[in-house]
Amino acid sequence: MSNLMLTFLVGVSFFISAISKDVGSMVANALPVFDSATWTVLLVTAVGLLVAMTPFGKLKGTEEVSNIILYVEIALIASRADISAMGNAPVWLAAGFLILLIHVAVMVILAKVIKMDIFTCAVASLANVGGTATAPVLAGAYSSALVPVGILMALLGNIIGTPGGAFVGHLMSLIG
């Protein structure tokens, strides 16, 4: 893989990211159902899925570049985390643990009913709880050949989880 190809792939990814951020802000102003960050994630996901089905998605080096950008995303998310105020909202913290408990119960029941292996169960769980950044990392821990499976599950978790999370957020706003 040449340096020119690597530079091209990174440049295209940053370009799509920048365009999606701007378009996400415009869509959030026109349709305030979600904030601009959520619209940006949805747009990047949609563009990524569409581009992956084209010959561009088969270029040599796309997997390596996507892994590097994924690790950068994880680092950026972690660097913005502020856990100092966690104790100020015990009801919301308890609600989060209740949601995780329900998630664990559903995953265990589904794993038993459809006889899901531990890899699929763990990656699907992390795709729902941890999101796009963490599921491919867990899949890569099993085997680098499984990273695309983790990315696909994470994208599906994003596509299904965003409206589901908005619904749960709406329910919680009715309580609080």
Provide structural commentary:
The protein is mainly α and 176 residues long. The protein contains 7 helices and no strands. The protein has helices at residues 3-30, 36-52, 62-79, 90-113, 118-129, 135-142, 147-175. Helix 2 (36-52) packs antiparallel against helix 7 (147-175). It is globular, with a radius of gyration of 18 Å. The model has no long low-confidence stretch (mean pLDDT 81).
What can be said about this structure in brief?
This protein is mostly helical. The chain has 7 helices and no strands.
Short key terms for the protein model shown above:
globular, 7 helices, 176 residues, 77% helix, mainly alpha
Distance between the termini: 54 Å
> Which stretches are poorly predicted, pLDDT < 50 over at least 5 residues?
none
Mean pLDDT figure: 81
Proportion of β residues? under 5%
Sheet with the most strands, sense and barrel status = none
Number of helices: 7
Helix content: over 70%
- SSE succession: HHHHHHH
What Rg do the Cα atoms give?
18 Å
What is the count of β-strands? 0
Question: What structural class results from the helix and strand content?
Answer: mainly alpha
Give the overall shape: globular
